[in-house]
Amino acid sequence: MPMIDNRMIWILLIALSLSFTNSLNAQDIILDNTSTKTLDLQFDHSGAWSRTAPSSINNLSDDLEKYLTSIQLATFLYLEYGIDHHTTNNKTSTPNKLDRFFRDKIRWGVEAKDDAESASDILLYGDIFLTMTILPFFSDNGYLAMLKTSLDVISLNGIITDLVKMSVKRQRPDSFFETRKDKDDSFRSFFSGHTSTTFAIGTSNAIMLSEIYPDKRIPIWIGNLSLAAATGYLRIAGDKHYMSDVICGGLVGYSIARMVHKRKEMKRVNIGLGTGADHLSLSLTLRL
């Protein structure tokens, strides 16, 4: 059941502050690091292209876009912290043979598994902290744009991860094999949130840094994805996830980051269909 407490107030304050910031900077923040100049071309019934003045009509989608990050972040925080995830007694998540095999091979010892869990937390939250504070300074006056992109990736990945965890309710290996006492998150094993988040952040960071330093593209990608893979390995070593949880989490995180950046690229092109008094026209707007 949802809880109304200080956490919910904190979530609402974050959403309101981001919405206010987005509205103030709507004319100044350029999300795709391009200029705001547009080139409008119109194709009329005669079969000829003609250049037209930039459109002054504000689309509803453009208005919603200003608040998309705030909505996503608030939704993610609510799913993550605003809902009770009580432990259940429905212990039906029997691991398959492949997951058992990799658990036996990768899992650390009884005492060391806690160190692996702590190390995975350090990699996750360290990655988030560096992405939010240090990475944007590598851009050329694009701090806010990179920060907003990272928030888009993290929040969207968090929403999808939490919804799947809440729906599947897979029992964690440490709960199934009773190597730890049950906790509120004992039935949130599939898929690995640590892995999906680090892969989403790593992929997004690699895309942005590769654009800034194209000559260092290979080491940038290797470094970011290696960090994400190490996080997934530690989640298995810490007996918090199975191999299938980690593989699926990695694929989802990578795909979400790619999708967010692809969506940003698509904003540079806008195609519209219009009608005049005696003709039908097709317009093409390019952001230069």
List keywords for this structure.
globular, 9% strand, 288 residues, alpha+beta, 58% helix, Vanadium-containing Chloroperoxidase, domain 1, 4 strands, 2 domains, four-stranded antiparallel beta sheet, 9 helices
Structural account:
With about 290 residues, the chain is of the alpha+beta class. The protein folds into two domains: about 1-15 and about 60-85, no CATH class; about 95-288, Vanadium-containing Chloroperoxidase, domain 1 (Up-down Bundle), CATH 1.20.144. It has nine helices and four strands, in the order αββααααααααββ. The protein has a four-stranded antiparallel beta sheet with strand order 2-1-4-3, with no helix packed on it. The chain is globular, with a radius of gyration of 23 Å.
Task: Give a brief description.
With 288 residues, the protein is of the alpha+beta class.
Distance between the termini: 48 Å
Helix content: 55-70%
Helix-and-strand structural type: alpha+beta
Going by CATH, the architecture of the largest domain would be Up-down Bundle
Q: What is the spatial order of strands in the main beta sheet?
A: 2-1-4-3
Radius of gyration, in angstroms, nearest whole number: 23 Å
Determine the CATH topology of the largest domain.
Vanadium-containing Chloroperoxidase, domain 1
Order of SSEs: HEEHHHHHHHHEE
Instruction: Choose one word for the global shape.
Output: globular
Biggest β-sheet description: 4 strands, antiparallel
- Number of helical stretches of at least 4 residues: 9
Question: Which CATH top level class of the largest domain fits?
Answer: Mainly Alpha
User: How many individual domains?
Assistant: 2
Low-confidence stretches: 27-39, 53-58, 282-288
Give the DSSP E fraction (strand runs of 2 or more residues). Answer: 5-15%
Mean pLDDT: 78
Number of strands: 4
